[in-house]
Amino acid sequence: MKTKYINSFLLFLLLGCCISVSAQNIQGVVTDSLTNEPIPYLSVFYEGKGVGGITDNDGHYSVETRKGWNKLTFSAVGYVTKVVNIIPGVTKTMNVKMRADDIMLDEVVVKPKREKYSRKNNPAVEMMKKVIAHKKNNKLEENDYYQYNKYQKITMSLNDVTPDMLEKGMYKKMPFLKDQIEHCEETDKFILPISVDETASQKIYRKQPKSEKTIIKGMSSSGVNELFATGDMLGTLLKDVFTDVNIYDDDIRLLQYPFISPISSSDAISFYKFYIMDTTYVDKDKCFHLTFVPNNSQDFGFTGHLYVLADSSYTVKKCTMNLPKKSGVNFVDNMDIIQEFEQLPNGEWVLKTDDMIVEMTLMKIMQGFQIRRTTRYSDYAFDELPQQLFKRKGSEIKEADAMMRGDDFWDQYRPVPLTQTESSMDMLVKRLEQMPGFKYVIFVLKAFIENFVETGTKDNPSKVDIGPVNTMISNNYIDGLRLRMSAQTTANLNPHLFLKGYYAYGFKDHRSKYMGEVEYSFNKKEYLPREFPKNSITFTYQYDVMSPTDKFLKTDKDNVFVSFKTSTVDQMSYVRDIALKYENETQYGLKTTVEVKHSKDEPTGGLAYITNDDQKTLIPEIQTMEASLAFRYAPGETFINTKQRRIPVSFDAPVFTLSHTTGFKGVFGGDYNYNLTEVGLYKRFWFSSWGKIDMFVKGGAQWNKVPFPLLIMPAANLSYILQRETFNLINNMEFLNDRYASLDVSWDLNGKIFNRIPLLKKLKWREAIGFKMLYGHLTDKNNPLKHPGDGELFLFPTRDGRPTSFVMDSKTPYMECSVGIHNIFKILHIDYVRRLNYLDHPDANKWGVRFMVMMTF
Questions:
Q1: At residue 351, what are phi and psi to the nearest 5 degrees?
Q2: C-alpha distances in angstroms, 135 versus 139, 240, 377?
Q3: CA-derived radius of gyration, the chain
Q4: pLDDT at residue 387 in the model
Q5: If you count Cβ atoms within 10 Å of the first and of the last residue's Cβ in the chain, which end, N or C, has fewer?
Q6: Which of the given ranges, 77-91, 413-427, 471-485, 787-801, has the highest pLDDT on average?
Q7: What percent of the chain clears pLDDT 90, i.e. is strictly above it?
Q8: Do residues 590 and 632 make contact, with C-beta atoms less than 8 angstroms apart?
Q9: Contact status, residue 287 vs residue 310, Cβ threshold 8 Å
């Protein structure tokens, strides 16, 4: 009976919709795609139906809609006829841009298949050289001061939504989605917006001393990202991946890759082919129309159009760019960038419009997305600015009430009005939340995406999160099967004071392990204490079983995916740590860490501490009391905050590290005096279409006489998962040193070779090679083999009577190399790793296969 009632009700609604469709009209404005001027007297009609109309002097049209009439034709002399899809009863407003029949704004394919392109005596190349030579005249940084206002809107939508799709699967249970559908005039597809992020800001600049700051005046976020505590992660990621474009830069950073600009001073002429098409008018300015295309369509470059003023300034008036259809970029089906420039009263040319539309498909079985970034620049000024504006801390300053701006503010700062659908995001979220079972779907998605489970609701935000989820079940040699329950408090409980901890139990050793942590943040946090920049003090108490190489993991040691080991890891310790740590980060990239820690180390499994004297005394535990000071400097580094960790969104910043640790004998039971110093450098180098090289250089010294647990161990990675800054084929504690230097170089060629092999280029695989090297030295004072009978030292570890730790030949570095295929199925990275020397060590793996799952563009 209930089902019958629901069906009758739906039928009633359907009939109501059909009745309303027969009486509705569709209207809009038709404009020129280049000049943006309205087009009068253009025909709008249904092909073969005898029904239509024409646009008026302002380009406005209005025609009726009828059920089953899904295509509307726009036609005028001098323009390419355009047929657009509509949904009768749903599509009520549709603005259309028409392009002149002599201009092609899609992907440029202007060359014959066997074209012989020459840069010598090529008028297009000569013109581009003049454009490049004059581009410095249009850089704002040449002024002593400047300021401007910037408005940016990023809209995420489901792409290519059809009426049939909304009648199937889960969409059938959400009939209200029909009210959210919009027509995208640029792609001629129907979209369903699901989130909108707006930012209104002011940029200020001073040349001497150089300083630039962004003052965020207003921020607004609505849509499905409100359903996730890390919704800001989505907005931050989108802004980084689909960042602002400056064609006057040599490299345009998009999708976290540097693309060569069509007016790059260093590479444009060699990377692109240029063609002069004709002359045309753009907003009443006469321009030369040029097109450009990469030498190889699968390289990371653009195709597009440049409209250059036909005068001696060679200024770019307008630029349109898109990715070639054969580009090796993942997930991106289409990307269009449109930039327009205007001349100020003082004669300066500045950017006015910077729009981007990206169509993406993560998997063929999933619905595609459209990301639309709308950016407008206004109110340029070059007067001297008050010096106190530049004294404010940080390069980005958020005004206190930026997140609470009302309609009056946005009416003033929003130059592009929200569409009707974008304005109704809150209603969409409410309707979704009212659906039966929807909260359980969100619960599972949150656990999967964020790796934590919230204990709150939207009205009562989570004060305690359970997780990480991927540490609840794991395995190691001592614990056997290990179960763990973890939790952490959030800023919803207290924005300054945070608690964190876990309890774990091993079913093999039948021991409990636990950790408790209290952190006080001196600056207020939005959700978690690790949010950049940190300024906090932390007290930690921990008792757990540890492997000596666990400290080198970039993830939690209980992560189920790193539980599987390539070699036996039975030499472990029960460790009891008490630590007090202070961390301070600045907006300029400098991080200072001061820590005091007391540790008790009880060897277990295959590990034993035996004195190097005649008695061979078994030491049940050792204690250390130490203080450390560390500096990390990474200028320009930014982060995305998640519940599990902070993710750097730009790996281009160099990273310098310096640390020193001092141990104190006799203080709180400390057994040893020691001093350990380490220094490191990381840098990424981009080589245009040849990809990128990541390089890590490290070195360190243990200055005192100490037993082997306090010597320097290689950063061994014994899991099957690839991790940066670790060696893949060195065993646990295989080399023990008190001096070391290491080099880690990896080169991702970004498909440069595979893209030129006919059978491989369709797969979009990317090749990579790597090389790792470790120089190590153990001075005689720390070598038990050189000092038999010295009870201050310990015998090196053994397994079944055979040594498992060795002294390196200081003249022969350990080396391993790798060759890999990345981007398999767009997410899988597989490396073949090979050990090049020290092959006679027991249990040494001479080769192996390692993998990593990671989505990259």
A1: -75, 130
A2: 7, 25, 19
A3: 32
A4: 87
A5: N
A6: 471-485
A7: 33
A8: yes
A9: yes
